[in-house]
Amino acid sequence: MKSSELTGNEREAVAGEIDPFEAALRLGDVKGRSPWEDAWHRLLKNRAAVTAAIIMGVMILVVVIGPWVISWDMDYTDWDHTNSPPSLANGHWFGTDAVGRDILVRTLEGGRISLLVGFVATIVSLLIGVSYGAIAGYYGGVTDRVMMRLVDIIYALPFMFFVILLMVVFGRNIVLIFVAIGAVNWLDMARIVRGQTLSLKRMEFVEAARACGVENRDIIRRHIVPNLLGVVMVYVTLTIPQVILVESFLSFLGLGVQEPMSSWGALVSDGAQDMESAPWTLVFPAVFLTVTLYCFNYIGDGLRDALDPKDRL
Amino acid sequence: MSVLLEVNGLDVRFETPEGEVHAVRGLNFSLQPGETLAIVGESGSGKSQAMLAILGLLAENGAATGQARFKGEDLMAMTPQELNRHRGRDIAMIFQDPMTSLNPYLSIERQMIEVAMHHQGLGRREARTHAIEMLRAVRIPDPETRIRQYPHEFSGGMRQRIMIAIGLLCEPDVLIADEPTTALDVTVQSQLAALVDEVVARSNMAAILITHDLGVVAGMSDRVLVMYAGEVVEYGTVEQIYAQPLHPYTRGLIDSVPRLDREDHEALHAIPGNPPNMLALPPGCSFRERCAHAFEACAEAPELSEPGEGRLKRCHLEKAP
Amino acid sequence: MSGPASGRRRKQRPVLKVQDLAVTYDIQQGGLLRRHTRPLNAVDGISFELARGETLGVVGESGCGKSTLARALLGLVQPRRGRVLWLGEDLVGLDEKTLRKKRKELQIIFQDPLASLNPRMTVHDIIAEPLWTFYPKIARVQVEERVRGMMKMVGLLPNQINRYPHEFSGGQCQRIGIARALVLNPRLIICDEPVSALDVSIQAQIINLLKDLQRKLALSLIFIAHDLAVVKHISDRVMVMYLGRAMEVSSAPNLYRRPLHPYTSALVKAVPIPDPAARRRTATSGLRGDMPSPLDPPAGCVFHPRCPYAVKRCEIEVPPLRRLPQGDWVACHLAEELDLTIVKSG
């Protein structure tokens, strides 16, 4: 008996045949297809997103492994080849800068910092933003008002002023960049999550859980947050490049990472100064940065389409 | 006898991530002027998708083939621009949820006047007068004032009245109403049903009513077309269908309507099982697994047969169930 | 004051006794300036009793307060006044924690079958959640066994246990909702329009299932709907609500044979009859206009502006819900004079 014939589960047993109900049970449990799996299959069909994800994966791999494999150190000065254009002969594939440092290794090291800033700051903002927003939205009332006013107040602080203030007080430090960016980014996340929670908590399944006596903590954990994650994930993929850009911007202004450490933003900033004499110092880090930003945007678009399909029958 | 709308071999297919859904399979029907046809079936039977296909309003992943001749012109072969001219002016459609088909940010006046100006080439003032007349025709009290209001200021029943008024604005030849009363209270349902019935009769318009509830259409349609799993399973005049349904599914639809006028306080007659999964239709008669009369012959899909004048059924049973 | 008690089960002590229940929402009105709140009396002085194994139907148009009544009974909204006596204990004013414990015995089934199920949870998790909540120490095997048993009971294939709500049809989703409501062995289930989002063919299945389960499990049911025909099929008694008040409480057969209240009679006439011979009989439901805004209910009898029989007295004096000699309850000044008989005996 085929499984397709067994959906009519109230059907009486046909004389002489086994009860279809029993027969269906002998087939064993049917595997369910979660909304996540559905989204995943849709994502895999999105060629742009898949390509972007593959490029991104390669990029991460290269950035992480590259500096160990390449024989140059990022702060090693090759006095024989300063301002060397890209060349296979002298081993500086991407060329060197004015003080003879290898651009390839510096680009990869810079990528480590840029991506690290992107991911860490985003995860921090994710954790704070989701729990903060979900709690404010779910409990509502005075709790919501106090919590969201606090967000508004922090939001009102000028970002650059905030960064400069941190620099002045604590000195320049890579950790500060995480703190500064994270401290601002979770605000957006909290607002988005709160808005979503407000609409989710009016859904009947949340009311059903309340009617069953489920505790608030469990409602947030089981019913609110999992249903938020789609929106949150899309936002995260769009936040990472945004954070990388902010870091680049800070570095460009000279407020970012300290020499000899570097980031794509810092490298682009350095390269821009020697643009005419040594364009490769600008081009390579700029290409890496741009490709990364594009990839994240395509992945984010793909996720949004996959998680929020409009034309479903 | 002239035919107003004739649909021939209409097929609608959807590409979904799970596979192809053949939502409408070879639908044929014709509509005479002034006639009211009810298309009845459960959700997923393809009744709405067939109408959307005729009007070129299918979702992006859908494709339709076949013919839909409106006064001799094939709607399905038209360009979107040509079709757009007919939509609203010659064929109007009313949807189930009046809130989503009205623009919440525009006043009723704006929405109605635009339609009238676009399709009928009326001036602004004439269009307004005409719109107010239509609102009065659907019994909106005080239409001169209320036309300036926004959709959210009306109750659900009133909004559906407005939708009907918009549908009637251009005096179309065909009015298609897709479950126009399902989302509403029973009291409002009966008022609206009476209203649709009245305007259709008065203007000698043809109407297609789409519904899952045979109880609703009994009093207001001439012919009934029953659809199951994308196919016509029965067709006949409303009297024939109710007095002697030939398909077990039709019988089931009639019996499952809870009735106030009968003293059957015991269990209702339900159609067992669930609407079929259109992604994996069983072989043979698609209704077989829910049918109490199924026998060996049902392993083979029945053809549409003509048991009598103007009567169609798709069932192997000789006798009426 | 005690509300309408059940007719044929009078000797039994009621499980649920509702006395003068009223729920008021504060509605924000006005623009940015001139903001003010106005009270909306969603439920206004409802009283009734419910016996074990009895079904009380509640009918009325949307906005009549029937859903609010359901939520107030479960303590999901706070009543402004009145008492909800569950087995003699007043649920109103109980703190969250004690109320939560009571929820084991009072459950609810919602209107929209898909929206009432969390799309990210499997059927197992949805039905098991109440068990996790009340018996956190119960073994996983036992939970699963119980969930499979429940699925079978409501007519779902237990091997579908790992599937997600979107993989089921509307009727099946409603069965999942019923299984969730029954898993804790409650004694009262409130059904808030459980079939109005379903196809007619599936409606009948669900109504039959509920009736069947009720008989098997000796459940008390409160069945809320806007369709009188549906309510009649499942209820012993029916309460007709309009603008937050009870218009009539009658036994189900009496209600449609001889309505006592003009509003009930209008509801009865509005039910479509699947018979072409009855053509246009449905058109004359006798109801004029729309329901007035509950923010601004009419003085006197709330139904008088739409009532074809209204007299001067109806505009001034609020008719109390009173018991007629034959045992049914009605809130109409003219109940004795009007003959609203619809179905002659037979």
- Strand fraction of chain B equals 15-25%
The number of helical runs of chain A is 11
* Uncertain runs of chain A: 1-17
The major pleated sheet of chain B works out as: 8 strands, mixed
Radius of gyration of chain A: 26 Å
Stretches of chain B where pLDDT falls below 50 for ≥5 residues?
Answer: none
Number of domains of chain A: 2
Shape of chain B: globular
What is the CA-CA span between the terminal residues of chain A? 28 Å
Give the biggest sheet of chain A: none
Summed over residues and divided by their number, the pLDDT of chain A gives a mean of: 78
Run of helices and strands of chain A: HHHHHHHHHHH
Give the strand tally of chain A.
0
Question: Into which percent range does the helicity of residues of chain B fall?
Answer: 25-40%
Key features of this structure:
heterotrimer; B: alpha/beta; Rossmann fold; 2 domains; 8-stranded mixed beta sheet; 4-stranded antiparallel beta sheet; C: alpha/beta; 10 helices
Structure summarized in a few sentences:
Helices cover 31% and strands 24% of the residues of chain B. By secondary structure, chain B is of the alpha/beta class. Chain C has helices at 66-73, 96-102, 123-134, 140-153, 170-182, 200-217, 228-234, 252-257, 262-270, 312-316, and strands spanning 16-29, 36-50, 55-59, 81-86, 89-90, 106-109, 188-192, 220-225, 237-242, 245-251, 322-323, 329-330.
Note down, in words, how this protein is organized:
- Helix content of chain A is 69%, strand content 0%.
- Chain A has helices spanning 20-26, 35-44, 47-69, 103-139, 141-156, 159-170, 174-200, 204-211, 216-252, 264-273, 280-307.
- The two termini of chain A are 28 Å apart.
- Mean pLDDT of chain A is 78; it is low at 1-17.
- By secondary structure, chain B is an alpha/beta fold.
- Chain B folds into 2 domains: 5-90 and 173-189 and 204-313, Rossmann fold (3-Layer(aba) Sandwich); 99-169, no CATH class.
- Chain B has 11 helices and 12 strands.
- In chain B, the strands form 2 sheets. Chain B has an 8-stranded mixed beta sheet, with helices on both faces. Chain B has a 4-stranded antiparallel beta sheet with strand order 2-1-4-5, covered by helices on one side.
- The radius of gyration of chain B is 20 Å and the shape is globular.
- Chain C is of the alpha/beta class.
- Chain C has a domain at 16-30 and 38-105 and 186-330: P-loop containing nucleotide triphosphate hydrolases (Rossmann fold, 3-Layer(aba) Sandwich), CATH 3.40.50.
- Chain C is built from 10 helices and 12 strands.
- In chain C, the strands form 2 sheets. Chain C has an 8-stranded mixed beta sheet, sandwiched between helices. A 4-stranded antiparallel beta sheet of chain C has the order 2-1-4-5.
- In chain C, strand 7 (188-192), helix 6 and strand 8 form a beta-alpha-beta unit.
- In chain C, helix 3 (123-134) runs parallel beside helix 5 (170-182) and helix 5 (170-182) packs parallel to helix 6.
- The interface between A and C is large, with 33 and 42 residues.
